[in-house]
Structure formats: structure tokens, C-alpha cells
Amino acid sequence: MKERELGRISEKLHPRTVADLLLGGCFQRSFQLNFLGEEESQEKQVEFVNLILDMFCEPAVGEFNDSSQ
Predict the structure, then answer these.
(1) Cα(4)–Cα(30) distance, rounded to whole angstroms?
(2) Stretch 4-30: mean pLDDT, rounded?
(3) Is the pTM of this model over 0.70?
(4) Domain total for the chain?
(5) Degrees (nearest 5) of the Cα angle 7, 10, 12?
(6) How many C-beta neighbours within 10 Å does residue 9 have?
């Protein structure tokens, strides 16, 4: 809830879901890099996390366009 209050995620999003998606994405990226034997700088890691977090701050996230209407 604090993340919403601080404006880090949209008011429309559930903080636990955002955390799960962030950690899942980071785990998957880490797994792939490890599997491929590649390394990534801390700068690139921070950039990746910030890109994901920026997506959660966008007002359109969580809204779906229902084209069936």
C-alpha cells in the first residue's frame, strides 16, 4: 500500500501483484543470462528494473480495451 501512496505504482494496481511480476521478470532474466553464460553489469540490471517499474507507473497499465463492445 505504501508504494501506491508514494506514487511508485498506479493506484489501480495491487502492490503484491506488481512485486510478483517484478521479481518474476528479474528471476527469468537472471536465469536466462546464467543459462547462456552471460554476465550483465549492475548498471544494466538497474536499468532493467527501472524499465519495469516505469511501466507500472503508467496510468494505462491495468486498463484493458474491451473490443467486444
Answers:
(1) 27
(2) 85
(3) no
(4) 1
(5) 140
(6) 23
Is 67 inside a domain boundary? Answer: no
Determine the Cα–Cα distance for residues 30 and 25; give it in Å rounded to an integer: 9
Cell of 21: 511480476
- Decide if 48 is inside a domain: yes
Phi, then psi, of 68 in degrees rounded to 5: -80, -10
18 is in which domain, residue-wise?
2-57
Task: Confirm whether 45 is domain-assigned.
Answer: yes
- Scanning the structure block, which residue is given the C-alpha cell 517484478? 22
The answer for residues whose C-beta is within 8 angstroms of residue 9's C-beta and 6 or more apart is 3, 15, 18, 53, 56, 57
Model pLDDT for residues 21-58, shown as the tens digit of each residue: 889 988 999 999 999 999 999 999 899 888 887 877 66
- How far apart CA 16 and CA 66 sit, in angstroms, is 25
